[in-house]
Amino acid sequence: MNGPKFPLNDLTRRRLLQGAAALGGAAGLSTLGVSRAFAQEPEKPAEIIVRAWGGSWVDSLKAGVSDPFTKATGIAIRHDLTEDNEIQPKVWAAVAQKRVPPIHINWDTTTNATKSALRGVTEDLSDLPNLKNTTDLSKPVGLDGYPIVNTYGYVYVLAYRPEAFPNGAPKSWKDLLDPKFKGRIALYNDGIGFHFPAQVAGGGKLEDIPGNMQPAWDFVAKMKEQAPLLGEDPDFTTWFQKGEIDAACTISTNAREARKAGLDIKWVVPEEGAKYDTDGLWIPKGLPENELYWAKKYIDFAISKEAQQVWLDGLGLPGVVPGLTPPADLVGDPSYPTTEEEFKHLIRVSAKVQVENESEWFSKFKSIMQG
Questions:
Q1: Residue 193 — left, alpha, or beta (φ > 0 → left; ψ -120 to 50 → alpha)?
Q2: Taking the mean position of all CA atoms in its chain, how far away is CA 359?
Q3: How many CB atoms lie within 10 A of CB 344?
Q4: In terms of pTM, does the model score above 0.85?
Q5: β-pairing, 76-80 with 47-51?
């Protein structure tokens, strides 16, 4: 993931305060990338609202980013657990109507965030000081500036319970079509992460995406006969913990969380490959100037090495800052790619193609599953 750095401008400098106490103390300011406190620093809001995913996702964000930010600045962080697809139209409507948006920061998939960026509702984040210390993974491909800051990458692995596979780890997504797994498989309710390996498992080619996705839909139709459970991130951890599923196409974080709870859970990248993607942080337009300033400070801290090490250690995901120490249980793991060889086994489709087609893919997947 290491790559070229991108030049950027420093935030506007301001006059020094007599002391740093008003902004949380010198140590906290240094942590947030602010070496000195400034007399004209904008007024601090009582809170910053960050849309987040629930379960281990928000717990890790809280430990690595939100709590340290509050300790350093005194600004409370409220985590809004509204799903990303649900919050999106609310933010778009607020910006269009020139109202203050319902959140300060959206923790979002890069594809969803790209839709918002192309719509023109995101603030540019090119002036964040810590960007100069990140790899090229932080830069959204195909967009001008930094309307989004990518914060880490992840893989949609095939997670499984070893006792359900006595002959060894599943080698192919097609292994899930065994009748014994009927009602014991989990997928995301829109099929995200599954469309691309399904294309290969269905006999198609990745280069045919998006022009000919019929092989993917044929394979999804076969999977529908297995009566899979459909849900979101917190559901996968719960289902594994309750022993309700044997296998799932999910981000490794969910399976790892179940493993932390004492369950015997493993995961693989099957022979057809697995989807690799990124998430990021962005700020909707329309915030008061002082709230925009502090929202930027939050994101800048989120891409510091200190914050990323704690935040992503909890999620088990590789970040955008060089030199992070992988969790001991993920060194050399296919879900924590760090080398070109490891990336060769992963499926990466451009954000532009995903933005242009994802709604159609989601609808097609749902129509098959509901048919």
A1: left
A2: 18
A3: 9
A4: no
A5: parallel
